[in-house]
Design a protein that fits this description.
single chain; alpha/beta; UDP N-Acetylglucosamine Acyltransferase, domain 1; 19 strands; 24% strand; disordered C terminus
Amino acid sequence: MLYIESTKAWLKNSDHPLASTLRPYIKGMRTLNVPLPLMPYRVMAPVFFLLSNGIKEVIRIFWWTPLFKALVDKAPRHLYLYTGMPFLAGRLAITLGENCRISGQTTFSGRSQNSDCAQLLIGHNVGISWQTTIAVGKKVIIGNNVRIAGRCFLAGYPGHPINPVARANGDAELENQVGDIVLEDNVWLGTGCTVLPKVRIGENSIIGTGSVVTKDIPANVIAAGNPAKVIRPLSEQELGLTRDNAKCANHISKELSHVA
């Protein structure tokens, strides 16, 4: 492997006549296109994607979804689990509501040092997008109709102590570094948000992209920044729409709960 990399570096950077001669041919090979007729590929492309997506759906329905349901405390109905199954780590009990959508490219972890099992409580009609991590210190509560965008981090515990000597020794974090996180109903976390321990975000509130939430956020506001601060309250018109949507979502969840 080292020989191959050394040869590639020599061909790319050397002033040797052989390297200089071969360099344009090698670059040309990277963009080589064979003049094939495109019509057969236009016919085959939809067939390929149909078969590919069909196989993915079969695996999702008959493998990933029942496997994940078997690992939660109460198997929810109408779960849409896409692109695999979340990575589960540590001691963690998961309770999941109805009609949730969860990316398989997520991580749910529980703090192993707890005397009791960490608890992740997820309500109805919740969406959790890809590359999100939920690290549960003791308890994380996610209310109904919550939306968590991609690459968010709910950090209920840090995983390491502050003391550098203890950290180098591989010791666990201290109890005062651990805390619950609560996202009340209808909260929306924008892409890349981080929520630290001992934080509660009030109902209907929206957290802007890339924010770091270090303390409680009241209900019915838009907050953003590092650390996150309240930008403005949501207007009555905005809240009216939110409440109507929430009522609609709750109604749908209740309707679905009666469907076998």
